[in-house]
Amino acid sequence: MATLEIRDLHVTVEADNATKEILKGVDLTVKQGETHAIMGPNGSGKSTLAYSLAGHPKYTVTSGTVTLDGEDVLEMSVDERARAGLFLAMQYPVEIPGVSVSNFLRTSATAVRGEAPKLRTWVKEVKEAMSELQMDPAFAERNVNEGFSGGEKKRHEILQLELLKPKVAILDETDSGLDVDALKTVSEGVNRVRESGEVGTLLITHYTRILKYIKPDFVHVFANGRIAASGGAELADKLENEGYEAYTKGGPVSG
Ligand code: ADP
Ligand code: MG
Ligand code: MG
């Protein structure tokens, strides 16, 4: 069973010629089949955690460990992390001019699976996944994220998730900017992947509304660069009623 283990993770970024510590000792274990929600105020470091796990070069790990099935993730390149089974759906997906969705998906699948998917089954696979996500087939020929609406970007992220079948999926604010219908469609996509029982999901969110559609097994409050409290789904209800204030006192919160 795949397990992602984060131990006492400290991460800095360079900003305005200064080194700023953003993650201040994150501890978290995500096992295949589990869904963890990470909830916290803006600027608490949630995206920094996601980027650090994915290997973004802007984020420097100064101490701590991250392992996937005992393998040192921090030693891996971005590509190696993807091949090892880590997947990140970004809060702000980037445009890739000149690369069609169709080419992008096939290249990604080839990289992750270690061989090109068989064309006939692949085309069917993509078509079905797109239809389930209520995406127009013509979408496949558009350039990645170029001129996509917020909802289209998020659907495209979940399309990748469904096709790449990672061991651990990090979904950074997949709910942001979605209307209720899009939120439902996107959540259903995430739930299809979860139902396989083969993926561990780290659902990063600011709001509780997505948790009405995706039921987490564990909820963690993220504040000031670390996990301030952990509990079950009931913790999300508590946050909905009481906000984050109780967890952010005594430390600066920006953003
Ligand atoms: P969240 O996702 O919880 O809103 P972020 O991880 O995006 O929080 O940001 C946490 C803090 O780190 C903020 O103060 C933000 O300005 C800072 N930060 C994050 N990424 C960078 C970066 N690439 N350069 C400079 N500062 C950054
Ligand atoms: Mg520490
Ligand atoms: Mg963020």
TrEMBL record:
Pfam families: ABC_tran (PF00005). It comes from Streptomyces castrisilvae. CDD domains: ABC_FeS_Assembly (cd03217). Gene3D superfamilies: P-loop containing nucleotide triphosphate hydrolases. Belongs to the ABC transporter superfamily. Ycf16 family. Residues 4-249 form the ABC transporter domain. InterPro entries: AAA+_ATPase (IPR003593), ABC_transporter-like_ATP-bd (IPR003439), FeS-cluster_ATPase_SufC (IPR010230), P-loop_NTPase (IPR027417). Keywords: ATP-binding, Nucleotide-binding. This is Fe-S cluster assembly ATPase SufC.
